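seq as requested:
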Amino acid sequence: MVSTSADPNDKQPLGWHSRGYHPHVDDPRRLQSVGFRLADSVPNHLLERWRDEARRNSAAVDQVRAAELDRLIGRFEDAGHGACYLRQPGIAAMLQDTLLYGDGGRYRLIDWCIMPNHVHVLVEPHRARLPHIVQRWKSVSARRANLILGRTGKFWMEDYYDRYIRDRRHFEAVRRYIWQNPVAAGLCRTADQWPWSSARLRAGAVLGE
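struct tokens:
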């Protein structure tokens, strides 16, 4: 289903900006690789140490270190820390539907992969700003997931990380990474076997089987 309603929060792109966690670029002309994770996916003491360092090293100052921090957190994500609520089929299916809802309207959803405790998305914003797109994904899915789980409290970790796609080679590398993430984490043998990924859709299977 496609959402086509205008949103007053989606008028002006923010360009490069930060809320104190990760630097972002908000530009509707750019393809974006986006990731966000469950609140308990990284041990708190490590997360706070990495965040303190990230605050001192913005992308404008040290892009290499910012990428290293993302890789450190990524390794912990793939190790399966936390409750891994996204492993539950009902929650993963709900989140996948949430991502697909605005496809073709507010944005073009190119690829995605829902892992047990984090999410990767390759997206092209259209009539919406990237921060508002991600905020909508997170707020809607958090509310619905907490209802399914019968719980309250924070579901997603603060903020998100993004990388704009530089060229075709970068695009293909990011796409492969998203598709292969479940394989690399030992969750399946081939990318098309993972039910909560665009790789399965592109292989001709029906989502959620």
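The radius of gyration is 16 Å.
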